[in-house]
Amino acid sequence: MNVRSNPEQAIVVITDEGGTKIFEGKTPTTVYLEKKKGYFRGKKYNVKIGKPGYAEQTVTVDTKLNGWYLGGNLIFGGLIGWLIVDPATGAMWTLDTNELNVTLEASKGSKLKDTFQLGVVLLEDVPQSLWNKLVKVSPQGR
What does residue 46 show for φ and ψ, rounded to 5 degrees? Predict the structure, then answer.
């Protein structure tokens, strides 16, 4: 499953339905998630995505029956595929999503909501009333 966020470099924590941490990392990332929990049982995951200054979001990723399990075994696998092979290997399950794209919103009271703009102007275009607030910056090493 691909996990992306806006802004990037958000922390991703994935836990299974029992609360066991499966993965922790930063976006963007790709994570392999086991689809079967047991014989005839699919897994479910909670994906928490957050970044300082932004509200954390939680998304539930569940499994569902794979269409090939139903149709493919009708044509090719028969009862052995339906009752033994696919339930044992987990091939009967698929994730309900293969990609998460989350847009994080700035937390209430966060200064990240305020826009900051940077512009470049010529010194001659700076009003004289602001000249006393200018700071001379020189390149490192000079």
Answer: -110, 125
Give all strands (DSSP E) within the chain, no chain letters. 2-6, 11-16, 21-26, 29-30, 36-38, 41-42, 44-50, 57-65, 93-95, 99-103
pTM of the entire predicted model: 0.58
What sign results for the dihedral spanned by CA atoms 36, 37, 41, 44? negative
- For residue 122, tell me if it sits in a domain: yes
Task: Kindly state the average pLDDT of the residues 128-134.
Answer: 83
- Kindly report, residue by residue over 91-128, the tens digit of the pLDDT: 555 666 778 889 998 877 655 555 556 667 787 877 88
Q: Which domain holds residue 122?
A: 2-133
Helices (H), 2-139: 67-72, 78-80, 86-89
